[in-house]
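Why Nucleotide-diphospho-sugar transferase domain-containing protein? Reviewers of the renewal asked for a concrete example.
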Amino acid sequence: MPLLGTCIMCLFVVYIYMISTSAVAMKDGKDVYESISKDQWLVQIQRHHDFSSIRRGILVCVFDAMIPMAASLVLELRALGNTDLIQMYHCNGELSAASHRILYMLDARLEIVDVCKDFVASGRLPAAKANDFRSFWLKPLALVHTRLAEVILLDADDLLFHDPSQLWQTPGYKETGTVFFYDREVAKAEYLNNWSVHRFQRMLNLHVLVDTFEYAQFHLMKRPSKYLERTLAWNKHSAHEQDSSVVVVNKGATSSVAMDVLYHLVMHTRYTLDFSYGDKELFWLAFELAQVPYSYIFNPYVNHDMSSLQDPAARVAELVAAIPTHVSRQRKRSKPLTTPEDAANPDGFWPQECLYKRGSEAMRPQDVRAIERRIHSAMRIAMIQQRELALDKLKKKH
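Here is what the prediction returned.
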């Protein structure tokens, strides 16, 4: 397998070189595209790889605009020593042929899955609803669908400083088959902490969800856990509980009821009750409502966005200059100290994304270098993607 990976990377380099050298002499690009389209070895890689026996891997949900971040995430995972299968999930043909080529050329242990087409074909997803999952709602659906037993769900724009497979060795994972991460504490009346009218009473959305969930459908009785009753959201102190940029689940070691409940939440409940900002709360709540044990650990979360390719060098310089020198320090989850986005707040108006008055600690130099490496990788892949998309347009034109 290492030899195959080396061969693929060599072919990738030769492929890029051939395009760049041929493009100088081309008149309308048609000859270049036709030579590229004959590279059927890409199709053969997809056709002959059999990953059906693999039971552990990493799952990332993607669409065309996220390919630079997703592909650079693959490079970063391999640089950190990770060798697990990586599944790239998308919805209803959301990935272009160019994106398929980039991903398959990049890594030999990579699989692309269109979960929406599979679920529509099997009758588990109405065709009229399929495009509803071209969003962050795709992630719960992907977790239900994947044949992998041990799964690490990652966001394409995650910044990693260690091989995430270490999470499979944590005590909480070994005990419960899950690792969940807390989101920031936000003292706002929205999502879990927003109000709904239920049985002529004004109740928190989280309370409504727990009170109205169809337990009998899953052969369960209402039985909220002691942990739930201690959460900040249950006690009106936070709009959010879970951050879903990293979610670790052992589907083989936990009750299948949790996956059935997750499917129900994403297919039905989220349409009737606005309890979650996207997919983020569905994972822990699926386990809570299914009465299956789950575990949380602390997370330091950092996120960056890449948007412009008008001047790649300038954009890289801008992103590198914005790399933080400090991050919020590690601490125990606790009640928020002040209210965000409130003009009447004596502390002033500040975005809810900020961990205000929570302290800070310096970033390690190697973590700063890792972010810089990721920025450069993502920008290079974005430039390759733009060229590939342009070549696809030439094919349609001719």
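The first strand starts at residue 56 and ends at 61. This is the kind of structural detail the renewal will allow us to pursue systematically.
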